[in-house]
Design goal:
- The protein is an alpha+beta fold and about 400 residues long.
- About 55% of the residues lie in helices and about 15% in strands.
- The chain contains 13 helices and 12 strands.
- The strands form 4 sheets. Strands 3, 6, 9 and 10 form a 4-stranded mixed sheet that branches. A 4-stranded antiparallel sheet has the order 5-4-7-8, with no helix packed on it.
- A hairpin with a 6-residue loop joins strand 11 and strand 12.
Length: about 400
C-alpha cells in the first residue's frame, strides 16, 4: 500500500483505518443535532418577558404530566434559543407560571437552526380565546395605545423644553417663547412650561433693556415686556402650589424669577415677598434666594432692607461670604464723624460683617475693597485670615 509515494506497512494501514473510523463518528455526531430559536409575544402584541419554551415528542401537547426533552428560557425581550437537539418532530410549548399558553409543531433537521416564533395575535390563536379574554385584550390595547400617545407627547414636550433652554442660553429667547407658547397651549396645566416661557420672556426684556441703555433711549414697552414674564411666572407659581405632588425646586425657582421681575419694575415689596416665598418653598436654596433679595435692595439703594435681607441670608447660610459684604455695605452708610475730633465711628455690626467677609473670603472679589474701608474707618485688619486650603 502506498500513500503519497510512501510504502505503508500493514500495521500502519490498520492504524490509519482505526483513526479514520474514530474521526468519522465524531463528525457525524456534531452534525446530528439541531438548533431552535424564536420570539414569543402575547395576544396584545407585547413580547413575553419571562417563561420557557419546552419541547416534547408527545402527540398531545395539552396532556397533563408531559415529559419534556428540552427546556429553554425566554429572556426579557421575548427571545429564546436552544442547541444540541436530537433531530425529530416536536411540539414546542410556551409555558408561563407553570401553565402552557401556546404550542407549535416543529420538525427539526440535523444541522438546522430552525426559527419558531409564537405570535399569539394570529387569528387561529385569538379565535380559541374566550369572549372575556378577547375583551380584556382589546381593553389593554386601548389603554396601551393611550399610554403610548401620552408618552409621545411627553417626549415632544421634553424636546421643546431642552431646545428652549438651549436657545435662551444661546441668546435666542424668541425660539423659547414660541416653543413654550405652543407648549402651554397644548398643556396649560404644566407649571414647568410656564416657568420656561417666563425665562424666555424675561430674556427678551433684559435684551430690550440693554439695547435701550446702549442707545441711550427709552423703551416705552419695556415694563410690559417684564410683566409678560411676570404673568408666566405667576402662572407657574400657582400651578406648582396646587400640584398634588409638590416640587420644592420648581416652586422655589419660579418665585425667585418672579422676584427678579418685580425688582426690575420697581416693585420692591412684591420682590421681597417673592424671594421670601422662594426660600420657604426650597430651604435647600434659601441662602441663594435670600441673597438675591439682599442684593436687590442694595442695588436699589435701600440700605435698611438690604441689611435685613443680608441677616436672613446669613441665618440660612452662615458661610455665604457675599452676604456679609452686603451687610457691611448697607451698614457702612451709618458711619458717623465727630465734627470736633474728626474720628470716624462705624456701627459694630458693620465692622463685624466686613471682618467676617475677610475671614471667609480672604482673597475674594471684594477683599481689597473691604480692607480699604476698614482702614479708612480706623479698624485694624486681622492678620490671621488665610486662603482656604484647596
Amino acid at each position: 500500500m502506498k500513500i503519497f509515494g510512501m510504502k505503508v506497512t500493514a500495521g500502519l494501514a490498520a492504524g490509519l483505518l482505526v483513526a479514520a473510523m474514530s474521526i468519522a463518528p465524531m463528525r457525524l455526531l456534531a452534525q446530528a443535532t439541531a438548533s431552535i430559536h424564536g420570539h414569543a409575544q402575547n395576544a396584545a402584541g407585547q413580547a413575553l418577558t419571562s417563561g420557557e419554551v419546552r419541547l416534547t415528542t408527545s402527540a398531545d401537547p395539552g396532556a397533563p404530566n408531559l415529559s419534556f426533552s428540552y427546556t429553554f428560557p425566554i429572556d426579557e425581550h421575548g427571545d429564546y434559543k436552544g442547541t444540541g437537539i436530537k433531530p425529530g418532530t416536536y411540539y414546542a410549548i410556551v409555558y408561563q407560571q407553570s401553565k402552557h399558553i401556546d404550542f407549535i409543531q416543529a420538525k427539526l433537521v440535523a444541522g438546522e437552526d430552525k426559527t419558531v416564533d409564537f405570535d399569539m395575535t394570529r387569528k387561529e390563536y385569538v379565535d380559541k380565546m374566550s369572549s372575556e379574554e378577547r375583551a380584556q385584550v382589546e381593553e389593554f390595547k386601548k389603554k396601551n395605545a393611550a399610554a403610548v400617545a401620552a408618552n409621545s407627547k411627553i417626549e415632544n414636550l421634553n424636546k421643546l423644553i431642552l431646545d428652549s433652554t438651549t436657545a435662551i442660553q444661546a441668546g435666542n429667547p424668541e425660539v423659547a417663547v414660541k416653543n413654550m407658547t405652543d407648549a402651554t397651549t397644548q398643556r396649560p396645566n404644566e407649571p414647568i412650561l410656564w416657568k420656561i416661557l417666563g425665562d424666555g420672556q424675561l430674556a427678551q426684556a433684559e435684551a430690550a433693556a440693554k439695547a435701550a441703555h446702549d442707545a441711550k433711549t427709552k423703551d416705552a414697552s419695556l415694563n410690559d415686556k417684564y410683566m409678560a414674564a411676570g404673568t408666566s411666572y405667576q402662572k407657574a407659581v400657582s400651578l406648582y402650589a396646587a400640584a398634588a405632588k409638590p416640587s420644592p425646586g420648581g416652586l422655589g425657582a419660579a418665585n425667585n424669577q418672579l422676584g427678579l421681575v418685580y425688582s426690575r419694575t420697581g416693585k420692591m415689596k412684591e420682590a421681597s415677598a417673592a424671594y421670601d416665598a422662594a426660600a420657604a418653598a426650597d430651604p435647600s436654596k434659601a441662602g441663594t434666594y435670600l441673597f438675591n433679595e439682599a442684593a436687590t435692595f442694595l442695588n436699589a439703594n435701600d440700605a435698611a432692607d438690604a441689611a435685613k435681607a443680608a441677616d436672613k441670608t446669613i441665618a440660612a447660610d452662615p458661610t455665604k461670604a457675599e452676604a456679609y459684604y452686603i451687610k457691611g455695605q448697607a451698614l457702612v452708610q451709618n458711619v458717623t464723624v465727630d465734627p470736633k475730633t474728626g474720628k470716624v465711628t462705624a456701627p459694630a455690626d458693620c465692622t463685624a460683617a466686613y471682618q467676617k467677609y475677610l475671614e471667609l473670603a480672604p482673597t475674594g472679589a471684594h477683599a481689597e475693597e473691604v480692607k480699604s474701608i476698614l482702614t479708612g474707618i480706623g479698624e485694624p485688619i486681622k492678620q490671621t485670615y488665610k486662603a482656604p486650603k484647596k
